Amino acid sequence: xxxxxxxxxxxxxxxxxxxxxxxxxxxxxxxxxxxxxxxxxxxxxxxxxxxxxxxxxxxxxxxxxxxxxxxxxxxxxxxxxxxxxxxxxxxxxxxxxxxxxxxxxxxxxxxxxxxxxxxxxxxxxxxxxxxxxxxxxxxxxxxxxxxxxxxxxxxxxxxxxxxxxxxxxxxxxxxxxxxxxxxxxxxxxxxxxxxxxxxxxxxxxxxxxxxxxxxxxxxxxxxxxxxxxxxxxxxxxxxxxxx
Length: 243
Ligand SMILES: [Fe+2]
Ligand SMILES: [Fe+2]
Prior knowledge:
The chain is an alpha/beta fold. The protein has helices spanning 55-65, 81-84, 87-93, 103-113, 181-190, 200-208, 227-239; strands spanning 2-4, 9-15, 18-25, 32-39, 45-47, 73-75, 98-102, 119-121, 126-128, 133-138, 149-153, 158-162, 175-176, 214-217, 222-224. A hairpin with a 4-residue loop joins strand 1 and strand 2. The termini are far apart. The structure holds fe (ii) ion (FE2) (2 copies). One fe (ii) ion is lined by residues 82-83, 163, 218-219.
């Protein structure tokens, strides 16, 4: 569904109760998408607020799914403007919502930036959003950010994988079953968004062991398929210095 004809912001249910809100911007040649994921649970959760300047657009898209005041959880993978820029606007619009992030993310950024106290999740911590269980995995420097982490929805086996598998392009299908590694390697060739950490392979193997059936990327299409195989292929590609 197109939520805003001017910006061509889309809202699509990509897995049961998981809505991908996607706005394309001309920040690189050929365009680039910024995705937030809204989980319509008993305690609704928004993963990535998108840029502060996009707040009215992202808000409009959230409202296509539910009243914004229903939001209880607002978080992101790591602290950058596309992940957390509109956090305080959303906290103001949703008075019962709590901001969340990794322990390091709360320590380094959210404690200062968020208008209300934020919740820090420990590595491997499982928490309930009512009818769904979520698992937070701390993934420092993968692909970037000391504070980086990803969120796993246990019920749909969806890995909200942040900037992993970032694909360029303005008008990407909401979901694809074709591999997304070639496109994300193309992006990495253009702009190397990976920290060169020694723990990358071990962290990617840990994510693969979750056996995700969907990789919900922040930039580009969500991938439906054997997420573990693709994560292992990514680890091998990075170890071998790229494609
Ligand atoms: Fe990032
Ligand atoms: Fe990002």
